[in-house]
Amino acid sequence: MQTHTEDSQLADQIILITGAAQGIGASVAKACAQAGATVILLDKQVPQLEAVYDEIVEQTGIIPAIYPLDLKGATVDNYKQLAQTISDNFGKLNALIHCAATLGQLAPVMNQDPKTWAETIHINLTATYLLTQACLPLLKQQTSHLIFTTDAHKHTAYWGAYGISKAAIEAFAEQLKDELEAEGKVIVSTIDPGEVRTALYARAYPARNPEHLNLPDDVVHHYIGKLNIEANSAA
């Protein structure tokens, strides 16, 4: 077991990560813990969350938190309760990293299923907005980081609501950056990790050989790099 030290890059920081059960979210969570942070693992897939939890404890000695939540059905009150739980248990939130996403349906616009479209927009955009809104008061208590995961496919044919939601996430991040800049507390960033060997990529390209792709662990440096900006001030 590797234990962190007080001079670890992200020591004493509390970081909430969505989509933490697998893929990029799980790798980012483990990397943050390796850097000394206490991570809050948010996802709907409890067994996978527990596996990530166990790996973090074994590798770092840091005890993370698990917060099961289905973004598809969560209400405004659910997000408010999450923020209150973080406040009650940790007293602060140094970073919120959005990694959760659903692919939805890849099809021409005229063939898109309206229900699937609405669900994809809700999970990828509206839920992200609601969670961010609920956590902003905690984030604004100190220098903190708000990181959104985006995707270059936002303008590509057939990418439907997934592409639209990623374009909207970038606009949302720019709005927040503009609104929060004067106060100087919350550092807003977007990260496009590129093509990564994840379950979402496998669904999008079932016939492609993924062997040449980066693994989730290969792209976590983008996220850790953002968190290291003024990291000491955020502690």
UniProtKB/TrEMBL annotation:
Q: Which UniProt keywords apply?
A: Oxidoreductase
- Keyword Aminoacyl-tRNA synthetase recorded: no
Q: Origin, by domain of life?
A: Bacteria
Q: Name one GO molecular function term.
A: oxidoreductase activity
Pfam families given in the database record: adh_short
Family under the similarity heading: Belongs to the short-chain dehydrogenases/reductases (SDR) family.
Protein name, entry field: NAD(P)-dependent dehydrogenase, short-chain alcohol dehydrogenase family
Species, as recorded: Methylophaga sulfidovorans
